[in-house]
Automatic annotation (TrEMBL):
This is Deoxyhypusine synthase. Transmembrane segments: none annotated. The keyword NAD applies. It holds the Pfam family DS. It comes from Algisphaera agarilytica.
Length: 342
């Protein structure tokens, strides 16, 4: 089995002249998925120019794939205003920040045998497609959080997962452990801009597992963390404050990277407000784009195609809608680069 450290294949610095990527896309992205990609990027840009805010959702392993290198810029340049993500994406951006030089790359990951996988486990390396994360970084972050959660129990404090992670960021020695550039961390950028982050199903992640184990051991109660329905309530409050109701500006846009709960959870906030809270004047989502390589099929696709969302009071017939069937690790950086003017 051949592996290499990710620092051997990742160049943290990349310079490009302004407008080169935009010009390339406008020249070559004229048909099929490429045309849809360009249209989604232009629609994103138009949405922001008209005064709309944008929600980004992240599923899959986008943080491990290094989406922070471009997403952090989007956040810092105020082209993203809220994020919904899986617990894995929430923590894996931090794992990469703390231990990126210790990651290993498996160029032949499709050919790994069961014994190869066991050998990785025995060495404390957890594989995500072609990238292996060292378990040591998980324990490093775990130990910092366990102390914070225990103190929260004593203080009667309750927070969302991302808020506890930001408590770790504030520790004076935290930055001493960075192995990757701080400017490439979308979690640090989100903290700088005080962006809200909603994490449905957080317990389905390494740190979510750690929290559950600590609660079972009696080190703190489950109530230390705000989850589930409280996250939905907080999202509804944020949407209400940012949907431009009663103005000519568009309501909040929705850029979905992948499928799954990261997209399904937040998009339901609007029908909940309209149908369950009876807030009939609530604007529908003002823009929608999804990048996913899953094939639309019965039961095999997580998340309906855009027009189906009309029947669920999420989108309107006139809402700008884009469906890009492709690898999000290829498409999302292109769209974001276009919006950034690269």
């Amino acid at each position: 089995m051949t592996t290499a450290t990710t620092s051997e294949i990742r160049n943290p610095k990349f310079e490009i002249e302004s407008g080169q990527i935009r010009a390339f896309m406008e020249r070559h992205y004229t048909n099929f998925n490429s045309r849809e990609t360009l249209a989604a990027a232009k629609g994103y840009e138009d949405h922001l120019a008209a005064g709309g805010k944008m929600m980004i959702t992240l599923s899959g392993a986008m943080s491990t794939a290094g989406i922070g290198r471009i997403l952090a810029r989007m956040i810092r340049e105020e082209k993203v205003h809220a994020i919904t993500c899986t617990g894995a994406n929430l923590e894996e951006d931090i794992f990469l920040l703390l231990a990126g030089k210790e990651y290993e790359w498996c160029p032949n990951w499709r050919a790994l045998s069961a014994q190869d996988e066991q050998d990785l486990l025995d060495r404390g390396m957890n594989r995500v497609t072609d990238t292996c994360i060292p378990e040591t970084v998980m324990r490093h972050f775990e130990n910092r959080l366990l102390d914070i959660w225990k103190q929260a129990e004593l203080d009667g404090t309750r927070k969302f997962p991302y808020e506890y992670y930001r408590d770790v960021f504030a520790q004076p020695d935290f930055a001493d452990h960075f192995q990757m550039p701080a400017e490439d961390s979308w979690m640090l950028a989100a903290a700088e801009k005080n962006l809200p982050i909603y994490t449905p199903g957080w317990e389905d992640s390494t740190i979510g597992n750690v929290f559950t184990a600590g609660a079972i051991r009696g080190e703190f109660s489950h109530q230390v963390a705000k989850l589930g329905t409280e996250a939905m309530a907080a999202l509804i409050e944020w949407y209400s404050a940012n949907n431009n109701a009663g103005s000519d500006a568009p309501s909040v846009g929705f850029f979905q990277v992948g499928g799954g709960i990261a997209g399904d959870f937040p998009i339901c906030a609007v029908p909940l407000m309209i149908q369950d809270l009876k807030l009939a004047d609530t604007p529908l989502w003002g823009y929608f784009a999804q990048v996913c390589d899953a094939v639309t099929s019965y039961g095999g696709y997580s998340g309906a195609v855009p027009n189906e969302k009309i029947t669920w009071a999420k989108l309107a017939p006139e809402t700008p809608k884009f469906m890009i069937q492709s690898d999000a690790t290829i498409v999302a950086p292109l769209v974001f680069s276009y919006v950034l003017g690269d």
